[in-house]
C-alpha cells in the first residue's frame, strides 16, 4: 500500500461495512413505501442517486484496502464510479427542476444534497490520479457525505413520504 493510503485501513473497513448496511436499509425503506415513491417525479431517481453514491463509497473503501496498488489506479477506479454516479445525479437534478410546486430554495437543497458526494469523490479521484496530495481526504469526505445524504433520503422514503 502506498504511503497515501497508510492509516486509512480502519476508516475504509468502517465505511465499507456501514455503507453496505445503509444501502441495504435504503432498499428496504424504499420497498416499504414503493407505491408512494413511484407516484412521485423525483424520489425514484433520487433513491438511485443515494444508492449509487453509497455503492461508490463502499467500492472506493474496498479498493483502497487492496495492498500495493498504485494510488493513481485507485483514482481511476473512483473516476469511473463517480462518472456513473454523476449520470444518475444529472437525471435526478433534471427531475427536481421539473417538479411542480416546489420553491427554488427546496430545489437547490435537493440538488446540492445529491451533488455534494460525487463532487467530493471527483476532486479526490482527480488528485489521486495526478499524484497531488490530499486526494484520499476528498474521497473520504465523499464517503461521509454519501452516508449523510443516504440517511437523509432514508428518512424521506420512510417517513416524510407518508405526510
Description:
With 163 residues, this protein is mainly alpha-helical. It has one domain (3-162). The protein contains six helices and no strands. It has helices at residues 9-32, 34-38, 43-64, 71-98, 104-130, 135-158. It is elongated, with a radius of gyration of 16 Å.
Question: Topology, please?
Answer:
Elements: H1 9-32, H2 34-38, H3 43-64, H4 71-98, H5 104-130, H6 135-158
* Structure summary, number of beta strands: 0
The helix tally amounts to: 6
Give the helix level as a range of percent: over 70%
User: What would you report as the Rg, rounded to the nearest angstrom?
Assistant: 16 Å
Pattern of helices and strands: HHHHHH
Biggest β-sheet strands, sense, barrel: none
Taken as a percent bin, the fraction of beta residues is under 5%
Low-confidence runs of at least 5 consecutive residues: none
Q: From the helix content, strand content and strand pairing, which structural class follows?
A: mainly alpha
Tell me the overall shape.
elongated
In whole angstroms, the N-to-C terminal distance is 49 Å
Number of individual domains: 1
Mean pLDDT: 91
